[in-house]
Amino acid sequence: MIDVISLSVSAVAFFAVAVTPGPANLSNATIAMSHGRKTSLIYSFGLSFGLVFWGLIAASGMGAVLQGSVYLLMALKIVGGLYLLWLALQTARSASQANPEVLTVPTEKRWFLRGLVLNVSNPKSVIAWMAALSVGIDSNDGLQVVVATTLVCAAVGFLNNALYSYIFSIGGMMRAYRRFRRRIDGVAAALFTLAGLGLIRSAFAR
Question: pTM to 2 decimals?
């Protein structure tokens, strides 16, 4: 039988991790302020499906295997770090442009793929999933509980990404971004760089 309290605890634990500012939330907020709600929501769907990918990995037990596979985890971290550095370069280019309209705007499909790739290339997501699932799932629980908990956490992930899209695409946020765009993009580029280098560094940490 599914325990509603355990589901709620897992949902709260996962939301606490998901809502924390990180590369995914930072990029989503920046896109919402610069390109508007529709584009940000498309991007957020990509982020969410990338998060679901790691949820399925964690729920199937492959998360523990991944954590124990040194070379596979190392490769994923390097790929994820390089992708964050690529995002840093793109954001830095935006910060260097006095006129943002000269930059090429990706299509809706590419926005979705960018979000998807960002979360799929970040193996740290599986750690968050494993932590949330371990809070609400007991060793004696069956498949039904595992599926229910995974679905609830996935819904929380979609909700978190949608909230970022809605909050940062309100008029005041977008006006502030247009006014301080180059400074905001500069800070975002620096944070992406730090996150990317940190992920690559952790790939070689023992």
Answer: 0.81
Q: Nearest-CA neighbor of 148 among 162, 133, 128, 160?
A: 133
Q: Is the dihedral of CA 169, 187, 13, 157 positive or negative?
A: positive
The confidence score (pLDDT) of residue 105 equals 58
φ and ψ at residue 138, rounded to 5 degrees: -95, 160
Q: Which pLDDT score, from 0 to 100, does residue 143 have?
A: 74
Given CA atoms 200, 155, 105, 97 in this order, what sign does their dihedral have? negative
CA-closest candidate to residue 77, choices 120, 113, 38, 31: 120
Q: Considering just the CA atoms, what is the radius of gyration of the chain in Å?
A: 18
What is the C-alpha separation between 178 and 80, in angstroms, rounded? 29
Cα–Cα nearest to 196, from 64, 100, 88, 72: 88
pLDDT at 184: 85
Could you tell me if 81 and 197 are in contact, meaning their C-beta atoms sit under 8 angstroms apart?
yes
Helices vs strands, H then E, count in the chain: 9, 0
pLDDT of residue 157: 92
| pLDDT < 50 positions in the chain | 102-103
